[in-house]
Amino acid sequence: MNDTQRLEAFNRLAATMPNPKTELNYTNPYTLLVAVTLSAQATDVGVNKATKALFEVVHTPEDMVKLGLDGLVSYIKTIGLHNAKAKNLMEAARILVTQFDGKVPVTREQLEQLPGVGRKTANVVLNVAFHQPTIAVDTHIFRVCNRTGIAPGKTPLEVELKLEKVVPEHYKMDIHHWLILHGRYVCKARVPECYRCVLADLCDYNLAKLAN
Predict the structure, then answer these.
(1) Mean pLDDT, to the nearest integer, of 144-158?
(2) Does 172 qualify as catalytic in the annotation?
């Protein structure tokens, strides 16, 4: 995909999804951080089911500390890797209370100091909660960018940095959501639904398939 095709792809995604939103339920920056941490290797649907009850009692890091490890596990036991995630969330809550006055930090470097928070999680929180134009490359974005040719790369970081270069500034707030939703519902992992894809005539994968 060349630069002209990329821009057309971004324009089409913008037209298709003018107001993209995360599908994780949250009420404030802290509950978003919790939800995104839980979503690693889990579906948003599964996380939302677990956090529906959890977020009735936990709104802040202080609430999480009061709930305690066993209490947290009782809410999230349906989520994969829940024991490890619970330990990370509990320790992260303690750090937020003792070092950040109970507030979620607004820089990637500080967020990545929290247990269980990597670059992708930090980027999601910065984008969604604090409206920073960060790009969080998950499995959907990694697949779509490599498959279509929008921003191919061997690692999520390579794809992220390439997107930073090729995405126009006015699209950087939303590109993360467009690519996730496109990968989740159209450019699926096993069988991409090229027949209904708005990028089909621009996509390296589809054009190669048609050529064969």
Answers:
(1) 96
(2) no
